[in-house]
Design goal:
It catalyses: S-ubiquitinyl-[E2 ubiquitin-conjugating enzyme]-L-cysteine + [acceptor protein]-L-lysine = [E2 ubiquitin-conjugating enzyme]-L-cysteine + N(6)-ubiquitinyl-[acceptor protein]-L-lysine. The protein is mostly helical. Helix content is 34%, strand content 8%.
């Protein structure tokens, strides 16, 4: 296993490369966070493997006892996560075309521009809308698992959606050492209802933190909380 991890680590390229990608169209992708898939925002880099993420996106990984890099899955020391100042400089230096109006924008300002670009808003408005399934008179089988809400495997608290389950377990069971079955995975067709995760909290934060049909909207309080958490993490280095 150690040899395998060593090979994986050596094969992974440090992010992002020193120079810009050929052509402006590839710049945004080159400087995008692997987690949120948007241009880096306050980027930080993991010291051991060199992979770069938005500071906010990496925060959940820093809250578990034995964090793994979300990209290469190698363990890392949370005290050796630093601001990616070289990436910030590159974000301020390179420009790329907006995906909507095609105007060239500095990467550091791309997120702000996209949020107010009328062309991007128009594209989003024209995306296909979700069409609900037509009502049916057929009986609904009683043995179909509920994949909308879940029960906490630690205390049995019920009717928690995916994000509420993550929040509940982080706040109430952070130090619980018991091995438990993930209720989200076990509800899936491929899930094993008998498999108990050795580190359920880390599993939740890595696999089920995000609901992919929603976007995160930062409030002033969330921004302040992020600043404080990141400052605390970096001050321990």
């Amino acid at each position: 296993m150690a040899m395998f991890r060593s090979l994986v680590a050596s094969a992974q390229q440090r992010q992002p490369p020193a120079g810009p990608a050929s052509g402006d169209s590839g710049l945004e992708a080159q400087f995008s966070c692997p987690i949120c898939l948007e241009v880096y925002y306050r980027p930080v880099a993991i010291g051991s493997c060199g992979h770069t993420f938005c500071g906010e996106c990496l925060q959940p990984c820093l809250q578990v006892p034995s964090p793994l890099c979300p990209l290469c899955r190698l363990p890392f020391d949370p005290k050796k996560v630093d601001k990616a100042t070289h990436v910030e400089k590159q974000l301020s230096s390179y420009k790329a075309p907006c995906r909507g109006c095609n105007k060239k924008v500095t990467l550091a300002k791309m997120r702000v521009h996209i949020s107010s670009c009328l062309k991007v808003q128009e594209q989003m408005a024209n995306c296909p809308k979700f069409v609900p399934v037509l009502p049916t008179s057929q009986p609904i089988p009683s043995n179909i698992p509920n994949r909308s809400t879940f029960a906490c495997p630690y205390c049995g608290a019920r009717n928690l959606d995916q994000q509420e389950l993550v929040k509940h377990c982080v706040e109430s069971h952070r130090s619980d050492p018991n091995r438990v079955v993930c209720p989200i995975c076990s509800a899936m067709p491929w899930g094993d209802p008998s498999y108990k995760s050795a580190n359920f909290l880390q599993h939740l934060l890595h696999r089920h933190k995000f609901s992919y049909d929603t976007f995160v909207d930062y409030s002033i309080d969330e921004e302040a909380a992020f600043q404080a958490a990141l400052a605390l993490s970096l001050s321990e280095n």
